[in-house]
Fold Kinase.
Amino acid sequence: MAASLLVGLLICRGAALSMDVHLRDLDHDLIDVDRIVPFAHQVGGHRVGDGNAASRDVALIRDDNGQHRLLKPLQPDERGVREALFYRTISQEFARLACTVRHRPTTSDAEFRFIPKYYGLYRMPGTDHFHVSLQNCIGHMRSPCIADIKIGRVTYDHTATPDKVLKEVANYRWQSEIGFRFVGVKTYRQELGKFDVYDKPFGKSIHPGNVDTAWSTLFCCGHAPHVQRRIIRNILSRLAEIAALMRAQSQFKMYSSSLLVAYEGHPCDDDVDCDPPASVHMIDFGHAFPIEDPNDRDHNYLFGLERLIASLEAYHRKMEPSDGT
């Protein structure tokens, strides 16, 4: 096993503190602050901090080719180390397995990746603020409609203190039953030419009896019904592929991880042939831990993912016209 992967596995097991490994110990580059631009489409819980002066949001950074990559801030503790090492090491093995599941020969095409492509670890000059540079999964969309959906019936890992467990359970009482939670939703309203944003209180208002409210909020941009159904089918296809991957992989379990679901909400020039791009990516790996038993699987994640698929399939069936067209 490569040394970097071994270190990654050890830290993912929760050994970061005992090994005294910090983000500064990892190879990284300094951020060129002149290349940073705001990111207009952040949803969910990716801010580091609670709105104080030290809070950091997701941003974009312009590369040498003029393309914009995502700059995601990392937590300044073992969660940040764990996530950085996940992207540097384990995610590459995961990407290769994803191609095997999809019967693709390589991972070169970003379209066939389930995890945003990793471009490196960066530090803000003069600070201990670290970021991972990632593929902007919605960069090709003009008016993206986005949902950040936290997956799993349990959102805390084995290192959580009793207080942390109680806090997570109280945070969303339906997590263990529904298996997923809408952390944030952003939709483009074609008739108004603007975005509507629904944050954590909206997600916490969703319960087993009104999950369709979340779906109808996400899919209300103004596309013709047959176009919206096509988008949902594309998303379901992507979710099914991720489920197949998670049933096959025995490398790690992920807690408090999310799926970033997105589609193009901008009006089509031709509704008849309109097929807006849609994507689903796995994100947030601050609580990814190796699986000890190769015969084991991430049943917690699979429970939530399968419930999510079943919920969206049911919503899609309700959208079908009575004549089946």
Summary: Residues 1-7, 14-19, 49-55, 107-112 have pLDDT under 50 and may be disordered. Helices lie at 3-19, 78-101, 162-171, 175-178, 200-204, 211-218, 225-248, 299-319. The chain is about 35% helix and 20% strand.
